[in-house]
Amino acid sequence: MRHAASTAWAFRASCWAPTFLKKETALQAKDQLFQMKVEFDKESKERRSELNILEKRLLQKEEHLEKKIGILDGKDADISNRQKSLDTLEKEIKDIAQVTKISRQYISDRENAIKELGLKKEDLS
């Protein structure tokens, strides 16, 4: 009878063994999948963190460049205003030079007329 009991036990074990192994394998696969998911989530979180840092840096650089553009636009406007002022001054200088030239010509013509008439400058005063 002992032999029959041990045979029955061996038979039951041989029947349960494949089911047990399938369950064990499935459990190990689930555990491995869970570990892979945890690792993936960790890596994803780290990558998102890195991307957020890079995005902040990029935004700071963009703000810095916008400030520089604003400064350069202001300088450009200042240069344009100075150029307009210089153009106005240049025109005034040309006008003054023309008036000076006309005045010198007038003085020269007057002196020549006085000489031709034989008069002295003192006589005209």
- Gross morphology is rod-shaped
Rg calc: 52 Å
- The tally of helices reads 2
Strand and helix order: HH
Unreliable spans: none
SS-based class: mainly alpha
Number of strands: 0
Give me a quick take on this structure.
With 125 residues, the chain is mainly α. 96% of the residues lie in helices and 0% in strands.
List keywords for this structure.
single chain, 125 residues, mainly alpha, 2 helices, 0% strand
Topology:
Elements (H helix, E strand, L loop, with lengths): L1 H116 L3 H4 L1
Plain-language structure description:
- The protein is mostly helical and 125 residues long.
- The chain has a domain of 87 residues.
- The chain has two helices and no strands.
